[in-house]
């Protein structure tokens, strides 16, 4: 996803975070609400993962009556009424921008975060501070942006040593390293087995 966005320069094709199937069937089913919700201009993740946090959320959403509503007062009740509650929450979150919600939830003690798309992630101040996107020269494409190594060490400076290879660029080197002679490699190329 990251490389696709950097190459195209366009937003990714959809929401991945909390909507990803590897997450959706685990934690969110047992804790409600614990997922991303649409805002007026994006998405925000909200973790009302226990009764205390849900009460904070109800107040911050301007819906204090939810705290004592029998359908939502305990997590078990919220799980049973999940679809209804999630719709009600999103009806509120879509009334303000992500930034407005971040300001409202600041200091509340409840887990929350803006949900960035891939382009937003690459433009985020932390991503820039960590040098996670590097521009390098590619022999065929010219300057391209690539994802830098995510692992950072205090006494080492890992870096991108080479641009992505061209198709077949290292074929001979690799096959010779495996013990094939030049005639065998040429025969494989001519038959279309390798590039």
From TrEMBL:
Species assigned in the record: Paecilomyces lecythidis
InterPro entries according to UniProt: CoA-transferase_III_domain, CoA-Trfase_fam_III, CoA-Trfase_III_dom3_sf, CoA-Trfase_III_dom_1_sf
Family the UniProt entry places it in: Belongs to the CoA-transferase III family.
Keyword Transferase: yes
Protein origin, superkingdom: Eukaryota
Key words of the record: Transferase
Keyword Ribonucleoprotein attached: no
Stretches the record annotates as Disordered: 1-21
Protein name per UniProt: Uncharacterized protein
